[in-house]
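Why does residue order matter? Because the sequence determines the fold. Keep that principle in mind as you read this record.
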Amino acid sequence: MRYYIISGESSGDLHGSNLVKGLRKVDTSAQFRAWGGEHLQSVGVEPVKHIRDLAFMGFVEVLANLRTILRNIDFCKKDIESFHPDVLILIDYPGFNMRIARWAKEKGIKVVYYIAPQVWAWKQKRALELGKITDLIITILPFEKDFFARFGISVHYVGHPLLDAMENYSHISSDPNQVAILPGSRKMEIKNMLPVMLETAARFPELNFVIAASPSVEESFYKKYMGNSSVPLVFGKTYSVLAQSKAALVTSGTATLETALLSVPQAVCYRGNAISYLLVKQMIKVKFISLVNLILDRHLVNEFIQHDLNADALSKELTSLLYDKNRIQELNSGYLELHEKLGGKGASDRTAELIFTHFS
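Structure:
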């Protein structure tokens, strides 16, 4: 079959690449066209559009780049039609992919939503629309099946694909003096998070800090926000950097879950555009921003949001993460619980089998 995949962010690119490997196992004649990045390239699928040109986040940022986004949507529709896919696979990236799903459904194209939009966090009634504009919804978080059931929508829970992606990194020995800095994969996140993370790092001259940098962002962009800092940038090796670290300062997103699955104590950070933050705060329907706390449905990792994200608060938290044995034990216990909630390995292969069986 012919598969058209749209992933607009780093995590979606990763999960898309593992899905491609799974689909090739069950469909020996599989052909692919995709939007993505380095991970999809690594499995032989050259992106039509690269994620570095797609990651716009927040109301203000989206408005500022609206013309580019609309051009991308128009190009995407034409490209899908010229490829004639048997199945359109949308991976997360809801602002863009929901628009494409509506259009594709009208055109009679079969639509799979893999890693369903987090409609449980805000705009919960969009779950109803999602059920109407897709043929198959695949979820990766354990509480999502019950959430969609409240709207009469049947979804398939496959477990979290990160358990497969990180399988080879769980046994790497950590450096007792290394701390990871994960400032995000979007330029706006790096601009907002990296300076305060480096200000915190400067207060711990006895430690070795390492920035886990996204390969989709050029080095010169990082350098703009590093001042005189000599903290090294390591591109495309986030899991290795985390696995070798004793603690981490992490931008909210998939990275918080990745850090937890590698059993690294973490401080969750987030600061956005002031207007975007105020608007989101009014609409948000959940108690936490980190996936770790959301999945556990309780507070485990500390979240430093907007004005609470400062070097004083992060320094105090980092000291606790490194030297408070009770705090470290509490995190380790919570991380074990998280592993159990996410189920076993094999999510990417289960997803591939589900898609191929459903549409062949």
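The first helix runs from residue 10 to 26.
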